[in-house]
Amino acid sequence: MYEAFIESEISSAHRLDGYPGPCSRVHGHNWRIRAAVCCQELDERGFAVDFGELQSHLEEICAGLDHRDLNRVEGLEGLNPTAENLARHIYRELDRRIGGPRVRVARVEVRETPGSGAIYRE
Which of 6, 51, 70, 96 has a CB 3.0–4.6 Å from the CB of 81, allowing a cystine? Predict the structure, then answer.
C-alpha cells in the first residue's frame, strides 16, 4: 500500500456551542491540514497521485474555509465546527473530487494548534 500526502493551512474562526469555557466565544486558529491518499498500485509514471493535482483539489476546498466563520460555512451547517468535524468535512469533499477505483483518500488530519488536532478516516 502506498500513501502520499500534502499539507495546507487556513486561518479561520469558530465558536464551540455547548463548550463550558472560553472556546464557546468566537476565536480563531491557524489550522494545519494534512490530507493523505492511498493506492495499491502506482500509475504508469510511478506516482500514487500527482501532488499538483492533489494540492489543487485541497486548495479549492480550503478556499471555502479560509478567513471564514466556520459556524457559517456551507457543508458544516448544524455541526459544531470542531477539529473532528472539520477533518470529516475536508475528507468527504476531497474524496468526492479525487476518490476512484485506483486512489482513495486515506485520512485527513486537522491541527488546531501545534500540539492538538484530529484525524478522520473511513
Answer: 70
